[in-house]
Write the structure tokens for this entry.
Amino acid sequence: MNDKIQALRERFAARLAAAETPEQIEEVRVTFLGKKGPVADLMTELRGVDGAEKARLGQLINTVKAEFSAAVTAAAEALRKAAIDAQIRRARLYNPSLPTEPQRGSYHPITLIQREVESVFASMGFVIEDYPEVVDDYHCFEALNIPKHHPARDMQDTYYLDNGQLLKTHTSAAQNYIMKKYGAPLRAIFPGRCFRNEAIDACHENTFFQMEGIMIDEDISISNLIYFMKKMLSEVFRQDIRVRLRPGFFPFVEPGFELDISCLICGGEGCPSCKNSGWLELCPCGMIHPNVLRAGGIDTDKYTGFAFGLGLTRLAMMKYGVGDIRDFNGGQMKALAQFSGR
Ligand code: DAH
């Protein structure tokens, strides 16, 4: 009988190991522990055994019975756990306390356009510089040929700190620092967040982004400026962009211009978006004023340069067709997430 029990144990273990579903496990239980199963048969056989041997074998059979029963329960439990694990994996739950659909982040449309412009200029040998948002009067105005009481300051009212520092009104505020940092020749772009005291509406914000660019070298002229702007805009809009210059006044450039691009909607024919002119105003620019170059430590007998102040927020509005500037700072994730990958 001992051998029989040993053989039974092995058969049971093999059958249980092969069971892959709860039904198959239940079948193993019924087969081995049921009324007509081998364990019941052993009990019947036990009747024919006598004395002390009967007691020993009886105990052994009970142990086997308990063993089988525990093994069946454990196998069923393991299967249940594996099923739950598989379900979790299928639902891609990284953490059971998170919602089942993991939230993917996305880039802000201004970040997207900034990176695009940066990569075009970087490919043309421009360095990309960062600069603080809190600046002093000298860098924001004085060094840019805007002395105190100059009327050009009126358009650039901003937020002042108690210590006299201010939130920069334009990225031009970094020009002096960058000229001093690198000297000439120099090609640099410096994107940044700017602030002004504005009445907010669909076209005006108190917080917006610009990207300044300067190129200083021997014999730099307006044709260099036109070339770089055309190249960059054609890359960003993925079409050939025509540009034109109109005179514009900014104290830190001479001559100064407003650079217009051919209307992206009508291609220059004239439509409501461009007020039927065929042109959109995009980017003020000009040849850097000698006073500004001198303040930056640049030798004006040897070097000239151009500068531009690209409105990144404005560019993003044009590229993505955003009609209201307030959408950029409104914090509406659903609205802002649509532009990634475009
Ligand atoms: N800083 C000017 C503004 O925000 C824009 C500007 C004009 C920048 C002409 C330039 C420039 O570099 O050459 O109003």
In short: The radius of gyration is 39 Å. Residues 51-90 form the longest helix (40 residues). The beta strands are 127-128, 134-135, 166-167, 186-195, 207-217, 243-247, 253-262, 279-288, 304-311.
